[in-house]
């Protein structure tokens, strides 16, 4: 049986950033647009209109 990554725990500074996130490369999920993840003052209230 091949072990599978189920979670990441990051402690300390990151040495480098890959061109694409490892979980995206592994097929977990495609990258989400950053605007969809940033909210202002309350959930669902985006800073800039699309």
What do these coordinates show?
Helix content is 8%, strand content 0%. The protein contains 1 helix and no strands. The longest helix is centred in the middle third of the chain and has 4 residues, at 22-25.
Question: TL;DR of this structure?
Answer:
Helices cover 8% and strands 0% of the residues.
Report the average pLDDT across residues.
79
Distance between the termini: 45 Å
Give the uncertain stretches in residue-range form.
none
Largest sheet entry: none
Number of helices: 1
Assign a percent range to the helix content.
under 10%
Give a count of the beta strands, DSSP E runs of length 2 or more.
Answer: 0
Secondary structural class = little secondary structure
Task: Report the β-strand fraction as a percent range.
Answer: under 5%
Query: Rough shape?
Result: extended
Rg to the nearest angstrom?
Answer: 15 Å
Return the string of H and E elements.
H
Which features does this protein show?
1 helix, little secondary structure, single chain, 50 residues
Task: Reconstruct the topology from this structure.
Elements: H1 22-25
């Amino acid at each position: 049986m091949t072990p599978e990554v189920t979670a990441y725990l990051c402690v300390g500074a990151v040495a480098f950033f890959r061109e694409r996130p490892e979980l995206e490369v592994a097929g977990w999920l495609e990258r989400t647009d950053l605007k969809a993840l940033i909210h202002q003052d309350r959930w669902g209230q985006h800073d800039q209109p699309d």
